[in-house]
User: Which sequence fits this backbone?
């Protein structure tokens, strides 16, 4: 087990009424990290293999993970199957253990090309990591709370050794509520963290929807068009609804490195959450 930094599943046992985590990209500056007003429970560091090519252990996501570790932060390192080889993973896993980084988030990767990887699925990589390191790493996987997503695929990942789930961002409480129900019906009992994108304008939302291929209902978009002045409150209201109706207390924010705006939202939420 990780000796110095807790596993995500341990951190989620926190009984505070409202906790949160931040996803950041390797481009974020140390100065921006140092000036934030509120500290997340953990930082998730993104992994874009097409940029760094998994060329060595001196790449931006590992530099950021190491920096956060030095600052005493809990780190969730993203890893994708894209361009991932067993040779590279065999070098990376001991390096992570030396750094006391014990939390991983395993995805296939948006640019996944099976010809450049030793792993055809994220399940294969999870099994390989477990084979090499037993229970040292706490592993998270992505869940997609939409009607066309097969819960059986997610359950297979959990059955193969994944420990928790972070959902893709959603913008309507019923979407997440239905997702939770489907998981329970499938006897999928791993912790599920809701993913939140704190957009503040229609253009920010549109860009995110296009980039991440996230779907929203026509009713949701029509409501935003009719009440553009309430756009900034959508995420705040969503979090309150999820907390009150589903008794969820931890939220994962896809910040796209806009930590100041995300912190402003969290400070606002803290004033109203008891």
Assistant:
């Amino acid at each position: 087990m990780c000796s110095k930094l807790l596993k995500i599943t341990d951190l989620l046992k926190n009984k505070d009424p409202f906790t949160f985590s931040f996803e950041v990209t390797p481009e974020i500056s140390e100065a921006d990290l140092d000036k934030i007003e509120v500290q997340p429970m953990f930082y998730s560091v993104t992994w874009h293999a097409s940029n760094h090519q998994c060329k060595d252990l001196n790449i931006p996501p590992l530099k950021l993970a190491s920096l956060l570790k030095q600052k005493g932060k809990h780190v969730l390192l993203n890893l994708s199957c894209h361009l991932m080889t067993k040779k590279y993973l065999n070098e990376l896993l001991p390096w992570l253990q030396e750094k006391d980084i014990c939390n991983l988030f395993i995805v296939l990767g948006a640019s996944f090309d099976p010809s450049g990887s030793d792993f055809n699925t994220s399940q294969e990589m999870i099994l390989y990591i477990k084979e090499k390191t037993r229970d040292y790493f706490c592993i998270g996987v992505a869940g997609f709370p939409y009607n066309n997503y097969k819960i059986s695929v997610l359950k297979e990942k959990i059955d193969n050794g994944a420990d928790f789930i972070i959902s893709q961002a959603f913008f309507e409480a019923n979407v997440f509520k239905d997702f939770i129900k489907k998981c329970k019906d499938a006897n999928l009992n791993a912790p599920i963290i809701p993913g939140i994108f704190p957009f503040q304008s229609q253009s920010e939302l549109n860009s995110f929807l296009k980039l991440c291929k996230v779907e929203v209902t026509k009713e949701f978009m029509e409501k935003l068009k009719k009440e553009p002045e309430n756009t900034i409150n959508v995420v705040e209201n969503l979090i309150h609804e999820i907390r009150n109706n589903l008794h969820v207390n931890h939220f994962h924010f896809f910040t796209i490195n806009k930590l100041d705006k995300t912190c402003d939202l969290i400070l606002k939420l803290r004033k109203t959450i008891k």
Summary: The chain has a mean pLDDT of 93.
